[in-house]
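--- STAGE predict ---
source: upstream dedup step, 1 unique chain passed
mode: sequence only
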Amino acid sequence: MGNEISFSGLGSGIDFNLVRDAIIASRSRSITVLQNKVNTFNGRIDGLKELNAGLAGLITASESLTDRTLGFGRATNTSAAAIATAQSEASTTIGSYNLNITRLASNLTQSSRSYASEDTAVLAGGATSATFELRKGGSAEGVEITIDSASNTLAGLRDAINAADAGVTATIIDVQGDGTSNQLVLTSDETGSAGRVELVETTATGTLADIDLTTVNPSGGNFSDLDAEFSINNLTINRSSNVVSDAISGVTFTLKDVGSTTISVTESSDIENKLRSFILAYNSVQGFIGGQYETDATGRPTGILAGESTTRSVQRQLRDIVRTTSDTNGGNLTNLFELGVTVDENGQLDLDTAVLNERLADSSEDVRSLLYGATESDTGIFQQVESITKSLGDSITGSVQTAITGYESSISNLGKTISSRLENINRLRDSLTRQFAAADAAIGQLNGQGTALANIIKSLEPRNSD
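--- STAGE serialize ---
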């Protein structure tokens, strides 16, 4: 309705549009203030969410340092990884082992005599069928296959062996490359004498003898040469596989080449790794907060969270946890500085590895006690750190999330206030438009009447008779 009312100011000579808009602008300033506040709160929410993401990483890093298996791992190193590698279990005895490999485990490989083509018959002596067994590791029995009129070719024998899935792969190789010298090659899938698979004829057709399988590997035909041969601290050992897990308790060797290497089993560096992860997460959060207080040319902080009370609280509490002490951990160490943790002038943490390694060498039990307590009933320093970081960064109950929720609630309330005030402004605009239109018309009418009256008065004035 308000849009249908208009005035030009021609009747009154007054620009009522300008007057109305000035009144509306004055009344709208409070709405602009509220909208700017909404924008500020949205920016703080985004900043606090980023802060909370950093705190989530810090919580995870803190939790990992309360793991009671921490520090009981093992690291395994080799002086020549091209010769052999090794892995250790957590229970492996710490020590050093001299490993000398003289022979790697290999697969049994056999080849037949040459056949004119893949379609050449293999049954001998006029036989119409023959049965065979694929026997593994010198067993007295194995997987049976039959060659008859439907499969009586070199290719048929190959396919029958492969279909048996008995731990051996059959292929046909054209030795000369002209299609006239085809040999059946059998390669055992597993290494070692125990993994070898041999083809044995169980009928008396003479077919196997005619096929004339010859051992290609091992070259001397001695199946024991298929086994790996190596020594550990001068004790000679043979195994069928190049992956050996039963020579030293808790250690798995992977033999790669002939030669010598030294395998060392030491205490794992997982404590150092976990501490560094914590330090990295800590520095990331503190760096983010510190960035909020970087100033511009006028000395004013540039970050959206500068001056935000929750941010300051997080910064202060994180600084405090670095200096947290633990007198009830059951060990002889009480703070992180004793492990080589340092703090620079910007509040960033670092780790002196030499100090940590010295503590681990002197008493790894004291280090573990400081981290998570000597027993379940003892409290280590990182149970305290975990509790504080969760109170700050928990996604539901943390103080940062509480601040986010508070800002979201404020934005909702501000939105309602802004909507209400916009409605009031619109009503005021309509009202002013009507009132000024009426005033414009009334003034215009009065001006018209004044002009008419002046003309009447002027007509009544006496005229000169000159």
